Fold:
Amino acid sequence: MSFATTDLSDQFPDQVQICDPIFRDFGGANTFHGQISTLKCIEDNALVRQCLSAPGAGRVLVVDGGGSLRSALLGDQLGQLACDNGWAGLVIFGCVRDAAGLATLPLGIKALAAHPRKSGKMGWGTLAQPLRFAGVEFRPGAYLYADEDGILVADAALGTA
Structure:
């Protein structure tokens, strides 16, 4: 599916939520979309690994890291795991690391910043719950569309003209 978030925003103004423009691109694929899976974990990426170890089936993992800028929730090894298991991309309200390696992967990754410190591995967090950040509610099963212009969320898949 080829799309532009600008066109989707114009075509479906009452059906999309638009994220605040706070994210940077880190993956090798700047345009990505898919059904949303959610995870909330702050400064602990054990559940990120668990999610990305499962088949992605073209989904997008949305991670609420609480906006923490103190450690990274994703690095190049977990990014490769996401590619290997068929995830379309990730949106992380937090940081990533190994930015140069992430940029070589055929994976969409949007995050707040890069940070060299790794996160904890305690397994703290919650899966498959609605999340709210960047002015948008992310619900499991909704659809996310992302490109260089931003991130849109819709309750159902959007067709394009």
Summary: The chain has one domain: 5-154. The mean pLDDT is 96. The chain has four helices and twelve strands.
